[in-house]
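Model: Ready when you are.
Researcher: Fold this.
Model:
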Amino acid sequence: MNLIVAVDNHWAIGNKGDLLVRIPNDHKFFREETTGKVVVLGRKTLETFPQGMPLKNRTNIILSSDPDYKVKGAVIAHSIEGLLKELERYESGDVYIIGGESVYRQMLPYCDVAHVTKIDHKYEADSYFPNLDQMDEWKITADSEEQTYFDIAYQFVKYERRTK
């Protein structure tokens, strides 16, 4: 399984229920990676999308502990166990964990690839992604040239879990 995330210098991912910054090339990369695939996200992340609707041209699986939670056009999983069972129906390489913080933390042990947009800035934040640079089991296997959007420098970095 894959994770896809944009982080700042301190591995922050959001503040007050929103992204830290919007970078068009990052959104383009996200679309290219996830279109036609399976995206896994939490209820709060879904609520940040336009009209709170699932992403088009993808299978959306929402993780919510609320047994009455329903979303048109999405599959709902009420536990990690239920989510993992649902994910057995799909090719592992086609599954992308897209947030938020709690879903990333719970699903990190099941993922082998992380697509991280590293933004060279420190933002005010209240949600974070685990720092893969401090985890021996993750290694960088690819990275892009540094790019800029106005005065924001960023790069795309691919991490893979080391095989034992």
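Researcher: Now this one.
Model:
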Amino acid sequence: MIQQRRATVEDLYDVEGPAELVGGRIVHDMVGERPAEVASNIFISLHAQCKKTGRGKAFPDGLGYVARVDATDRESFCPDVSCHTKPPAANPMRFVIGAPDFAGEVRSENDYGGTAVEARLAQKREDYFAAGTQVVWDVDPENEEIAVYRASDPTNPTIYRRGDVAEAEPAVPGWRMPVDEVFA
């Protein structure tokens, strides 16, 4: 039997495209055109809010957050869109240390299909909350809805659909985004 070396956060710096470190393995997280478009719509609005208020920084897909969750052996996150209020890193070319305040996870084609998939997504949300994230958006482009999960009540999301205006309180105070614009 050949044993593979356990991957480290340092190994993530050599990976092309979005990836996370879970259980000592690098998990690639590439998405299709529609999920990327939806994530971009969210990022544009979130970025404008952060610039307007001077609170936090918004980022599109690709930013790594180093945050250890012992229960699942997770060591990093790479959300589709995020916001954090951490002080600037000593080396801004490296990953952010700690979890984002807000994480937007946009479902791709492999994020549909039954209880195993839903359990995997629920576990990732639990990991976010265990690491310190305040709000996680589960964004569903196929059904055009957003489930907003909060650390204060992690199993009872607020669901927003077309015609509604979604929010990310308390992670991003005052930010509102019409669901129609998310899925435009």
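Researcher: Key takeaway?
Model: The first strand starts at residue 19 and ends at 22.
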